[in-house]
Amino acid sequence: MRRVTATLYWIFGFVVVAQTQTMQLDQFLYNSFKYRSTVDSALHYSNKAFDLSRELKYDDGVILSKVYSGIALYNDDQLDTARSLLFETINLSGEYVFEQGMINWYLGKLHRKTGSLDLARDYYEIAIDKFKQVDSVFFQAGVLSSLGIIEGILGNYNEALTLFTDAYELKLNNNLKDQSAELNNISIVYRRLGNYEKAMDYIKMSMKHKDSSELHFSYSNIGNIFNAIGLLDSALHYYNLAIDKSKPRTIEHANHLGNLGSIYYKRGLYDLALQYQLEGLKIREEGKLPNQEGPLGAIGDIYLQLGFSDRAIHYLKKAYIKASQSYNRQMISSLAETLARNFAATNHFDSAWYYLNIGRAHEDTLQGEEAQKKFADQRVRLETLKKQNEIDLLKAENELFTYKRKTMVAGIGIVSLMISIVFLTYRKKQISQRKTIILEKNRLEKELEKNTAQLTAHTLGMIHRKNGFEEIENQLLEVDGKGKSKIKSIINLNKALGKDWDNFSMYFSQVHTNFFESLNEKHDGLSQNDLRLCSLIKMNLGTKEIALLLNIETKSVKMAKYRLKKKLLLGDEEDLIRFIQHQI
């Protein structure tokens, strides 16, 4: 009896311990997910979950702990390790649908951060499907916003606006209280579209959903609007409010300090600009916070303005290394070109040549990706046209066949035969005409494809040449050295730009027939510069590319678009880009 009782106590104690350990494991995993943005805490709990899962020989627990470790490491900007852990967990068993959604969402975020936007889209689509399966509305909205960010990066602001609005309405219709992130995103898109009144309206809406501890985001966005339209005093005021309302030593606080520094930089107050940028960088370095390349590059640029070349190179190199680690090709290209100019100014032509090639290589890659996207869009349009031609031909043949059959039934004798002959002849003639039309359309399509390729190649060439290095050329006027001939050959490429606009107009008119004539007929008083801007918008070029081609700053492009919109008599709700792309 005692032996049986002892056995029962042992079994009961074992079950209690096992249940306690399972509950503890669940708590570790929950805490790792809950504190996923606080890296040290998230890794602490995920490591505990991993060790306990190994002890319990619970394979799914091991995998789940890796999932949350990967998410935490992504938030810490440790992208390679995060990628490795998330790929290890991609085949998590089917009962963990929510976790599968999280894995795909963060793999999408990771690929977006490294520039693989198509792959990021694919992972986001899978993530949305998983979150729909478990009816997780909050995370569905999060992934929709992530897709909106991709469209924003690509400059597809109308598509981004639709996605952000869908995310907002999903939360609103399901009574989820926190809609401020979606409202802020909508505000940012309107700001990028130049509709500052709408942008301000949505910021005010977002402020109603926030407590006082989060108002700094809204103040920062308001500052960005005033900064964009050149009201620097107002921008300065709201950036200061954002700093006052944000928690010290956080990444948000560091961002606001950087914004404040950018205003002082625009005003030429470089000492003050340097003070705030250094303060923001110190917060990032002490907290091991991500995205340090931006302030490092800004500090290097300030030192360039102050004339401290050695310090400038030091910070620009650090920024270049950080940008390379985070796969930020746009920033890598920009920093490499800045380093090249600075090395050339100090007569270090070998280093200038090295960074010049790096900058051009990344710039070519970025332009090549954009060109591929445009050619892909053109192919889709051509395929659609071909399919429509085939449908038209089939409809014509079907109509003729039906008509012939009815005629043969109704007619008799010679009359029927004559009618049949007439319609057979008519059918043959119609088919022949259709084939002729199709052949002509195919010829025109090939010619359009050729002209489009010439136009795109010519435009990319113009952008490439306009991205020359005038500062290097100025330095070469006073310097002799073995690096001079190498760099001089690159600068000479920019000398051939005189006839570029004439050639561009010729290629453009071949692809977009009567574009300029239609504009001038509908809208009087458009200048040559207005027509040139319209053509670049029709080419779907971004603000930076347009600024390069017109040899002006990006803020001047935004102002030119604003003035053009007024000349075209477009209302606040009407989008300039959509109008030029689809209505002309």
Into which percent range does the helicity of residues fall? Answer: over 70%
Sequence stretches where pLDDT stays below 50 over 5 or more residues: 4-18, 368-382, 407-413
Number of H/I helices:
27
Strand count, sense and barrel status of the largest sheet are: none
End-to-end C-alpha gap: 96 Å
Series of H and E elements = HHHHHHHHHHHHHHHHHHHHHHHHHHH
Mean pLDDT: 76
Explain what you see:
It contains 27 helices and no strands. By secondary structure, it is an all-alpha fold.
Question: What is the structure about, briefly put?
Answer:
This protein is mainly alpha-helical and 584 residues long. It is built from 27 helices and no strands.
Q: How are the elements arranged and paired?
A:
Elements: H1 2-34, H2 39-56, H3 59-75, H4 79-88, H5 97-113, H6 117-133, H7 137-153, H8 157-173, H9 180-192, H10 196-207, H11 215-228, H12 232-245, H13 251-266, H14 270-286, H15 293-306, H16 309-325, H17 329-345, H18 349-410, H19 413-466, H20 470-476, H21 484-491, H22 500-511, H23 515-522, H24 528-538, H25 543-550, H26 554-567, H27 576-582
